Here is the input.
Amino acid sequence: MNRRPIDRESPDRLYTVTGGRTRADETAFDSVSLIVSECEPVPGMQSEHVKILQLARRPTAVVEISAELRLPVSVVKILLRDLLDTGRITVRHPSAGATAGKPDPDILRQVLVALNDL
Amino acid sequence: MRTPLRDSAADAMKIVVVGGFGVGKTTMVGSVSEIRPLSTEEVMTEASVGIDDASRVRTKTTTTVAFDFGRITVSDSTVLYLFGAPGQERFWFVWDQLFAGSLGAVVLVDTRRLEDSFYSIDRLEHHDMPFVVAVNRFAGGPSLDAVREALDLSPGIPLVDCDARERQSCKHVLITLVEHLTRLYV
Here is the structure.
């Protein structure tokens, strides 16, 4: 796999990886949605899909997949969309998105405890 | 070496550290993260319409923004991601793509370049994103009161000193933010 920074890559590679699509359904994945593989890679699968399924054997955030694959977050979201549509992954969405900007007080307390323990 | 999350991880939260170049964002993320900070990029694609028309030269332009992040385990089920993000203008085009739903933000400030923070503070207010301001003390510099006045910060916004290299100091900044959130919401 190409390890150069994305900035110096040909845009054509990103175009190929996503099959020419430039947009995922933005609501399907948050940047910290946790992705979980529901199956093992199978022969003939696109190499990026294989890598995602391997990474997500344990829950893995979209941004971590992006960092590991060295692909922009929005490109990873398009790849994830394919895997979600075919039932190969499940998604654990962040609860903060569902409560319209008002975090659960219990969550804030938990965060405070965790920070104090650092 | 990658450190995966626990199998029970079900919910992730975000806090964003915003600041100009060289102000210490990456240092702060690294000081509190339990993993070696990772970096990645986001692109904003403009004018991607018309790609089916192969006869025309595409005038697509791509804006790329690099950012880094670390992670703090909150509980068996919950993890907190801490992002370091550049405050420059083009970065705000990808704010919604990346950071919608964040708990809040830390504006990291270098008193020698206070003007770098004006735009970030303005955008955070525009996005209704709660934030605190932390001064990364390099050497002396103006008092917090003088910084508050120069940044035109309202009295309700916490302003603290920190040393981005020190874990305890960064921890104090994050606790200040979460206490601020608690006051806002509870």
